[in-house]
C-alpha cells in the first residue's frame, strides 16, 4: 500500500467514524460494532442511510445485539417524537390558558367596575327615595295645614257674620 492509498483510507475511516458518531453513538470497528448511547433520536431512514456508508462486519453472534439496538433506537426515536409532540401540545395549551386567563381577568375587572357602579346607583336611588318621602310628608303636612286654615277662616267668617246680625237685631 502506498502513501496515497493510506491517506485515502484514513480519510474514509474518519468519514465513517463521523457518520457512525452521528448515527446514535455506534462506533464501527473492524469485525464488530460497539454500541453506545444514542446521541439523538433516530428514525429508520437515518439508520439505514448511515449504515449504507459504513461498511460493518458483524459477527453472527452479535446480530441479536444489533437487532436489539436497532429496535431500541427506533423505540427511543418514536418516544422522542411523541415527547416533542406532547411538549408542543402542552405549550399550545399553556398559551391558550394564558390567553383565557387574561380574558377572564379583564372580564372580572369589568364586572367589578360594573358592580361598584351598580352599588353607587342603588345608594343614589335610596337617597332619592328618602328625599322623595320627606317631600311627600312635607307636602301632605302643607295640604293639611291649608285645609285647617281654610276651615278655621270659614268658621270664623260665619261666626263674625252671625255676631254682626245678632248685634244689629239687638240694637235695632
Helix and strand run: HEEHH
- Strand content bin: under 5%
- How many helical elements? 3
**What ranges have pLDDT less than 50 throughout 5 or more consecutive residues?**
24-42
Radius of gyration: 53 Å
Terminal CA distance:
177 Å
Describe this structure in words.
This protein is mostly helical. The protein has a domain at 3-83. Helices cover 81% and strands 3% of the residues. It is built from three helices and two strands, in the order αββαα. A two-stranded antiparallel ribbon has the order 1-2. A hairpin with a 2-residue loop joins strand 1 and strand 2. The longest helix has 109 residues, at 63-171. The radius of gyration is 53 Å and the shape is rod-shaped. The N and C termini lie far apart (177 Å).
Gist of the model:
With 172 residues, this protein is mainly alpha-helical.
Layout of helices and strands, plus pairs?
Elements: H1 3-22, E1 27-29, E2 32-34, H2 44-53, H3 63-171
Comma- or semicolon-separated keywords:
about 170 residues, mainly alpha, two-stranded antiparallel ribbon, 2 strands, about 5% strand, rod-shaped
